[in-house]
Design goal:
Layout: H1 2-16, H2 18-33, E1 39-43, E2 46-50, E3 56-58, E4 61-64, H3 76-91, H4 95-117, H5 130-137
Parallel strand pairs: 2-4
Antiparallel strand pairs: 1-2, 3-4
Helix pairs in contact: 3-4, 3-5
Length: 142
Amino acid sequence: MGKHFRKPAVLLFLFWELPQNILGAATFLNLKRSGKTLGTSFEQGRYFIETPHRGVSLGIFIFWTKRGNRYHHENDCRMHEYGHSVQSRMLGPLYLLVVGIPSAMRYFYSKWFIARHGRRWNGYYDGFPENWADRLGGITTA
């Protein structure tokens, strides 16, 4: 009986997250074509794609890298990006506005901070929406 409910749910989420899924599919195809995917798996209704240096969550596509790990977790970046995918499921078509833009702004600020001060900005994950993604992904600092 559970299988009958899974297919409609998957289709519903494909459309609910349509803008992110389109961007995610395009990103995946581009990375795949350029040989920049290290591995893929399908878990929890999402595609996890390991890349050499990219972490971003776009609908059912979760791009992650071991280089993005901050703590003692083996897959810290993966967990964080999974948290963003939960945000995407919650917000649907509003995700790119509510999470994507603030997240991109924090990313570009962190790059500017490095260029200006010669060191990493330690506050990247302390504010919205990054701290929320960490909580949803199960990341702790311990």
